Amino acid sequence: PFADAHKLVEEGLAAQDVDESDLPDIDTDDDGEDDKRDVLGEMEISARMMITGGDPKEEADLKRADRAMIREALLMAAHATYKEGRQMLPSDLQQALYDIASDNDEGVINVRNAQRKAKAAEMAESLGMFTQAGSFEAELFNREGELWPEADVTLVDLGHLAREGYEAQMALTMVSMTNMINNIAERDQFLGRDIVFTVDEAHIVTVNPLLSPYMTKVVKMWRKLGAWLWLATQNLKDYPDIAEKMLNMAEWWICLTMPPEEVKDISRFRALTPEQESVLLSASKLSGCYTEGVVLAKRIEALFRAVPPSLFLALGMTEKEEKAERRALMNEFHCSELEAAKRVAQNLDRLRGLTEKQQEPATV
User: Fold this and answer.
1) Cα separation, 124 vs 169, whole angstroms
2) Which region ranges are annotated with the description Disordered (predicted)?
3) Domain containing 314: what range?
C-alpha cells in the first residue's frame, strides 16, 4: 500500500512540512483539471484503513491532530526507507509511530505530551494486525510488492476477502491494486493503449467509507492516462453516501432491467428525470432469450436489448436447477462440465428456432 512512498522524498516533502491546521478533508477534491496526484493523501487513507480496521466509529474518533501525526510518521518512514534503498512497508510506519511515542528518533519534529504519545503508541499497536509475523495480513501486505507479469488480461480473485470481517483487508487490497494499475498507466500513457479496470460485485469492495474518496482522487487523473474504472454491481443500496462524488464522475451508466426500488437507488447518486425513470422501468427480460437495459450518458440515452449467444448463456448459468441439468448431462454422456454446457447451449439454439434438431456438440 505504500509502494509510492519514495515519491514523497523525490518531491522534497519532509515531516516538518505537515501543518495540522492546513490538512484537507479526506473527501475534499478540487475540480480543476490540472490537479496533481496527492500521494501523501492516498497513503494517509491506506494508513487509516489499517489503524481503524475500517470501523466507522474508530474512523470518526480520529482527530485532526491524529491525522497530522499519521502524515508525519508516513514521511519519517518514507525518508528512512529511501535511505535504505527499499520499499516502505506497514511495519516501517508502525516503527515511526513508536518513535513518535518515545521521542527517541531524530526524525521526530514535535515533542508531544503524554496523551499524544499514548495516541501514537495506540495507533502503532493497531497496525500490529498487518505486521505480525506469520499472520495472513502480514503475508499479504507487509512485504515488498512486485510488478505484475505483462499480460493483456489479468484476473484477480478476491473471494477470500469478500467474507464478513475482512472489510479493511478488502479495501486495502483495492488500494494496492489501484496503485499498481496507476503505475502501469503512468508508464504506458504514451502508447495509445487504454487500460480498463473492471470490478465485479463492486458494492462489496467500496463499502469502506475511506475507499470511495481514495478512488475519486486516483480515477480523476486516469482519464489523462487512458485508464478507466468500470464498476459492476447488483446492489447500489450498499454504497455509502460518500461514494456520491465517485459515482457522479461516471460518464456512462449501463442499467439492466431493475425493479422500482433499484431505480430509486440510482437517484441517490444521479439525478433522474421522469422520462429517464420511465425508460428504466420499461426495460424487460425473458429468461433464456434476452435482457433489456438502458444506457445513460451525456450524448446518448437509449433502451437496448442484449441477446447473448446460447453458449454464453449456458456457461453463465448458476441457478441450482441449471447446475443440476448440467450434472445430469455429465452423468448421462460421461463428459466434462464444458461439454455439458455446450449441450445445454444446443438445446437453447433449438428452442430459439436456430437449429431444427439437436446435434452432437463439437469436441474440445
Assistant:
1) 17
2) 13-36
3) 310-351
